[in-house]
Task: structure prediction
Amino acid sequence: MATPENVMEFIWATVDKGPDGCVHYPLEFVDFLMDFGFVDTKKYSKEAWRAAFEPFKQPDGHFKLSRDEFLTLAKYRYAGEVKIPFDPMRINEGKYTDEGFGQLLNESIAPSCGLEAPTLNKFVEELKKEFRQPDDLILIKTEAKQKIKKLLEENPSPLRRLEIMFDNLLKKEGFKKEAKETVQKVSAAATPEQLAALQTSTFTEGPASFSEAEAKRLKNMTKAVTPDAPSPTAAGESLKDIKRSKKGLRG
Result:
């Protein structure tokens, strides 16, 4: 089983290092690591994550970390559950009470959304107002689900980005067909080894969403010979029951 310590050791062996044997990261890359699921956002804010790098800040603004300094980042690493991403189009259609919709929000929508609570709550109140029926229940059908889908596509949380990466890993490993066939009964969950592989790729592949010029600049800042290291083992899938109810679906 992967542990925070040996995962960080593996990532250190895999990442590019400069001639001085250290890693060199700009602030943009530090933020990228948080936005794409490396950091446990329930425990640490972006401000706390940035503060962790302050002791390693250089005169030009970038951060330089030795091996021992890099390993101190282990405490911030997300090591929780990663499942296939929540699909808003699979929400059970029908009428919801405010309590029932609140459960759907808390268990599925909010963890997948990167908006601050006040902004998300504003969206939710507007959605409820738009689809509230004369009997005071909230009717959730295709139109409402499309709005939720658009919200999550435009504002994914770090965990959702990690879940999407996991979903892509399943496709590459050939498990997607199996997951689809059993989706009404079970939901694939990442093993510790798969999570380690995903987080390693976050460090090594970098922010592909940046502009080409910015991506090239970041690549040059961390460019070095990558040492050989064994790949994390893609262990067998851990399947867990998904949570279903008349109030909604998390899968």
Q: What stands out?
A: The CA atoms of residues 186 and 241 lie 5 Å apart. The mean pLDDT is 81. The chain is about 50% helix and 10% strand. The longest strand covers residues 186-189.
